[in-house]
Design brief:
Blueprint lengths: L1 H44 L4 H14 L7 H16 L15 H5 L7
Helix pairs in contact: 1-3, 2-3
Length: 113
Protein backbone atom coordinates (compact mmCIF):
# COMPACT_ATOMS: atom_id res chain seq x y z
CA UNK A 1 0.00 0.00 0.00
CA UNK A 2 2.88 2.35 0.78
CA UNK A 3 4.48 1.51 -2.57
CA UNK A 4 1.19 2.31 -4.33
CA UNK A 5 1.05 5.72 -2.59
CA UNK A 6 4.64 6.45 -3.67
CA UNK A 7 3.78 5.55 -7.28
CA UNK A 8 0.68 7.78 -7.17
CA UNK A 9 2.77 10.62 -5.80
CA UNK A 10 5.29 10.18 -8.63
CA UNK A 11 2.51 10.18 -11.20
CA UNK A 12 1.07 13.35 -9.69
CA UNK A 13 4.51 14.99 -9.77
CA UNK A 14 4.90 14.10 -13.44
CA UNK A 15 1.42 15.40 -14.23
CA UNK A 16 2.13 18.61 -12.35
CA UNK A 17 5.38 19.05 -14.28
CA UNK A 18 3.55 18.51 -17.58
CA UNK A 19 0.89 21.04 -16.57
CA UNK A 20 3.56 23.59 -15.65
CA UNK A 21 5.29 23.06 -19.00
CA UNK A 22 1.97 23.55 -20.80
CA UNK A 23 1.25 26.68 -18.75
CA UNK A 24 4.59 28.19 -19.77
CA UNK A 25 3.98 27.31 -23.43
CA UNK A 26 0.52 28.88 -23.34
CA UNK A 27 1.95 31.96 -21.66
CA UNK A 28 4.47 32.35 -24.50
CA UNK A 29 1.73 31.92 -27.10
CA UNK A 30 -0.43 34.47 -25.28
CA UNK A 31 2.41 37.02 -25.24
CA UNK A 32 3.12 36.50 -28.94
CA UNK A 33 -0.59 36.77 -29.77
CA UNK A 34 -0.81 40.01 -27.78
CA UNK A 35 2.14 41.40 -29.77
CA UNK A 36 0.43 40.44 -33.04
CA UNK A 37 -2.86 42.03 -31.97
CA UNK A 38 -1.11 45.25 -30.94
CA UNK A 39 0.64 45.44 -34.31
CA UNK A 40 -2.66 44.82 -36.10
CA UNK A 41 -4.26 47.61 -34.06
CA UNK A 42 -1.45 50.00 -34.99
CA UNK A 43 -1.80 49.10 -38.66
CA UNK A 44 -5.56 49.56 -38.50
CA UNK A 45 -5.03 53.00 -37.00
CA UNK A 46 -2.77 53.78 -39.98
CA UNK A 47 -5.54 52.69 -42.37
CA UNK A 48 -3.62 49.82 -43.95
CA UNK A 49 -5.65 48.19 -46.70
CA UNK A 50 -7.26 44.79 -46.32
CA UNK A 51 -5.38 43.70 -49.40
CA UNK A 52 -2.01 44.57 -47.79
CA UNK A 53 -2.98 42.73 -44.60
CA UNK A 54 -4.08 39.76 -46.68
CA UNK A 55 -0.72 39.71 -48.44
CA UNK A 56 1.09 39.75 -45.10
CA UNK A 57 -1.04 36.89 -43.81
CA UNK A 58 -0.59 34.81 -46.97
CA UNK A 59 3.14 35.46 -46.95
CA UNK A 60 3.28 34.27 -43.33
CA UNK A 61 1.32 31.12 -44.04
CA UNK A 62 3.43 30.31 -47.10
CA UNK A 63 6.69 30.73 -45.20
CA UNK A 64 5.43 28.54 -42.35
CA UNK A 65 4.00 25.74 -44.48
CA UNK A 66 4.45 22.44 -42.60
CA UNK A 67 3.02 19.02 -43.44
CA UNK A 68 1.89 18.32 -39.88
CA UNK A 69 0.78 21.42 -37.97
CA UNK A 70 1.15 21.16 -34.22
CA UNK A 71 1.81 23.15 -31.08
CA UNK A 72 5.31 24.20 -32.15
CA UNK A 73 3.99 25.10 -35.60
CA UNK A 74 1.37 27.40 -34.05
CA UNK A 75 4.06 29.38 -32.23
CA UNK A 76 6.18 29.50 -35.40
CA UNK A 77 3.26 30.95 -37.36
CA UNK A 78 2.53 33.55 -34.66
CA UNK A 79 6.21 34.48 -34.45
CA UNK A 80 6.52 34.84 -38.22
CA UNK A 81 3.30 36.86 -38.41
CA UNK A 82 4.57 39.16 -35.68
CA UNK A 83 7.84 39.67 -37.58
CA UNK A 84 6.00 40.31 -40.87
CA UNK A 85 3.68 42.85 -39.22
CA UNK A 86 6.53 44.56 -37.37
CA UNK A 87 8.39 44.88 -40.66
CA UNK A 88 5.47 46.63 -42.34
CA UNK A 89 6.65 49.89 -43.90
CA UNK A 90 3.69 51.89 -42.58
CA UNK A 91 4.84 51.37 -38.99
CA UNK A 92 8.23 52.88 -39.75
CA UNK A 93 7.10 55.99 -41.66
CA UNK A 94 7.19 59.46 -40.19
CA UNK A 95 4.03 60.50 -38.33
CA UNK A 96 1.35 61.99 -40.55
CA UNK A 97 0.93 65.76 -40.30
CA UNK A 98 -2.40 67.04 -39.03
CA UNK A 99 -4.99 67.50 -41.72
CA UNK A 100 -3.50 64.84 -43.99
CA UNK A 101 -4.70 61.30 -44.23
CA UNK A 102 -2.22 58.41 -44.61
CA UNK A 103 -3.81 57.57 -47.95
CA UNK A 104 -3.18 61.04 -49.34
CA UNK A 105 0.54 60.62 -48.67
CA UNK A 106 0.76 57.32 -50.50
CA UNK A 107 -0.91 58.57 -53.68
CA UNK A 108 -0.70 62.28 -54.51
CA UNK A 109 -3.43 61.90 -57.14
CA UNK A 110 -6.08 60.98 -54.57
CA UNK A 111 -8.29 63.91 -53.63
CA UNK A 112 -9.31 63.83 -49.98
CA UNK A 113 -12.71 65.20 -49.08
Amino acid sequence: ELQQKVEEAELLKMELQMLETERVRLSLVEEKLLDVLQLLQQLRDLNISKRALGKILLSTLESCHAPQPGKAHLFEVLDTLQQELAGCELLHQEPVEQGQSPQSLSNPLVISC
